[in-house]
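This section describes the prediction task in plain terms. A model, or a person checking by hand, is given the sequence of a single protein chain and must write out its three-dimensional structure as a string of tokens. No templates, partner chains or ligands are provided. The sample shown here is typical of the held-out split.
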Amino acid sequence: MELRPPIVIASGVGGMGEYLKLIDPRYIGAYTLKTITFKPRLGNPPPRLIATERYLINSIGLENIGVEKFIEELENGLYEELFRKVKVIFSFAGEDFEEYLKVAEKMAPYQDRFVAFECNFSCPNVHFNPLSDTNQLKKMLIELRKKLDVFLIAKLGIEGAFIEQVARLVEECGWNGVTVINTIRALHINGETLIKGGISGPVLKPIALRAVYEVRNRTNLYIIASGGIMNETDAQDFFKVGANAVSIGTALYRDPEIVERIAKKFL
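The expected answer:
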């Protein structure tokens, strides 16, 4: 996969293309859509977000319209402007192994529209963690590879298994890349309210850097680095440890123009 600039809009934060209203598409290497599951999901009950200076915790819970509705919108041309302006990455997940396969089967006829499919194996806000059972994960990686010819990316987190070991498994099963890392389970206390969710933002950067470093030293996979990238220096650090591209997520909430500033440095 060739992305110029090597800048990816992260799944979730980027919604279904809304940030194209705020960012010049010339500075976006690829735009990852919100994760789509087999069935529609309402997501988790509020509170869903808490933001501080050093981190953001979200508990969205993969709210999305489901794959049937997404395909309907795709066929009706709802995303044509997005496809005209940028390369698009399709992100998907399931509530069990079977649902991952069902989404892949539904989307296989449309895979040529996308530069890559990103399989979200690591959302901390749902109850199913595929990374906790590497034997089952290996079976699913093999089956998904059989069903899809597209550039396949596994979105990995650090919970469930050592990320470099999972990345090697991903490579052995014939996949092309990994997104490293996802948010990590965290908790914020606000008065009497406990807010549980996945943590992102500047506090995540050292953890993500170590993960990218370990994965690069053990695989030849394409690596999209994700976690705490808030400025040009952060992006540079991830390229130093072996990332092929960097994913911008939480920083978009603060300043969407950060994408342009980072892109100009690495065009």
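For orientation: The first strand starts at residue 7 and ends at 9.
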